[in-house]
Amino acid sequence: MFRRVDDFKTIWQQEAEKTLAVLAAIPDAAAHQAVDAQHRDLRRMAWHLVETVLELPQHLGLKVKGTVGLGPDGLIATPPPPTMAEIAEAYRVASDSLLDHIGSWNNTELGRNFNLYGETWTGAFALFVLVTHQTHHRGQMTVLLRQAGLHVPSTYGPTKEEWATFGMEAPKV
Fold first, then answer.
1. Tell me: the pLDDT tens digits for 12-49?
2. How far apart, in whole angstroms, are the C-alpha atoms of residue 62 and residue 69?
């Protein structure tokens, strides 16, 4: 949980860089990769991250701006753009805006109660959910990248392929 706004800002910057690395690893030709037709593909999952960075902070009074606007339901009213580069740029803009707007908060806002999704969450918990929600979907995206036979960028340590850069063999599980 966050106790200081600056702690959230530090973590968000680090996590946003990881998300941008994963988005950059998705070529347009593989953006359709999904577990099956009933699940989000990589493009839709990436766009969902943009939606969430724009939507959740609105419930906290943070007017995050992006390259796209929100509809009356609080979600992006447009489908994902055709290219992963456009989605990555929309994410970067929304993420940067979140960092700008969270700067208007002081640490006491973290303990304030907000009504989100029919529940009462503190500001700190809502920001924690925003980070972990992104991490959850980023993990799903790395699995889809692996299934598509694509390079998976490291996020919290080296990937199987990156062990070779250390002159080592990847640990066997």
1. 999 999 999 999 999 999 999 888 888 999 999 999 99
2. 14
Asked whether residue 162 carries a pLDDT value surpassing 90, the answer given is no
DSSP character at residue 28: G
How many angstroms separate the CA atoms of 27 and 25, rounded?
6
DSSP bridge pairs for 121: 114
For residues 146 and 159, what is the distance between their CA atoms, to the nearest angstrom? Answer: 11
Q: Say which residues have a Cβ less than 8 Å from residue 33's Cβ, sequence separation at least 6.
A: 41, 42, 144, 145, 147, 148
Q: Give the pLDDT score at 106.
A: 95
CA distance 21 to 112: 33
What are the φ/ψ torsions at residue 151 (nearest 5 degrees)?
A: -65, 135
Structure tokens at 36: 């099956």
Collapsing DSSP to helix, strand or coil, 7 comes out as helix
Taking the whole predicted model, whether its pTM rises above 0.85 is answered as yes
